[in-house]
Amino acid sequence: MTRLAIDGPASSGKSSVGGRVAAALGYGFLDTGLLYRAVTRAALNQHLVSAPTAAVVKSVAPQLEKIAQIVDAELLEGGAAIVIDGRSYAAAELESAEVEALVPLVAALPEVRDALRGVQRRIAGRGRAVLAGRDIGTVVLPDAPHKFFLDASAEARALRRALQRGHAQGSTEHAQILAALIDRDREDRGRAVAPLRAAEDAITIVTDTLTLDEVVAKIVGAVQR
Fold it and tell me: Which residue range forms the structural domain that includes residue 144?
């Protein structure tokens, strides 16, 4: 059974690259960030979180842990179907502004991370899989035979995201995206539990000047060598 870990900061291309790599290799693919988003979406649907603050989120940690324990996913070559207690979650539900604002706080909870670590390992154990996230190679699958860390400057990542959303370089929206990415990087790298970092045995790929096809080719080539 082959498992492949792809880690990196927000908007480094993990999901796009991971999906393409999985398709090229005939593996299933899971963007593990969707699991955290699904827990967050379920919490919002259940009205567990009254405000997007660390104190409020921490106060409902036991309930969030219970939700995390029952998350599941069906691995597909192009992605995964996320299910909680028999309910499937569409991508649009997981990418809303309210989920975006809350998910970093939910993901920082040790209880949620511990629960989802077991979920991710169980999913990965079902067959050949590519998992993309922030702590796959360091925590979730430390024994994965293939580990990659995608990195890029906050400026490059912000520009990509801005252009994807139809905003011009140098626009107010571009500046807001950059500020949000810098804040998210600080949160991810400074997290007490499973902070963002490259595994010691990971291959780091700096993607600032690379196209999606070039990054995919580097990873597929390394796996097939």
Answer: 3-152+202-224
Q: Which amino acid is at 123?
A: I
Per the structure, how many domains does the chain have?
A: 1
65, part of any domain: yes
CATH of the domain at 109: 3.40.50.300
Cβ atoms within 10 A of the Cβ of 97, count?
A: 7
Task: State the Cα–Cα distance between residues 193 and 46, nearest whole angstrom.
Answer: 26
For 171-204, what is each residue's pLDDT tens digit? 999 999 999 999 989 988 988 778 899 999 999 9
Residue 43 is predicted with a pLDDT of 95
Query: Which pair of structure tokens corresponds to residue 15?
Result: 């999901």
Backbone φ, ψ for residue 86 (5° rounding): 85, -5
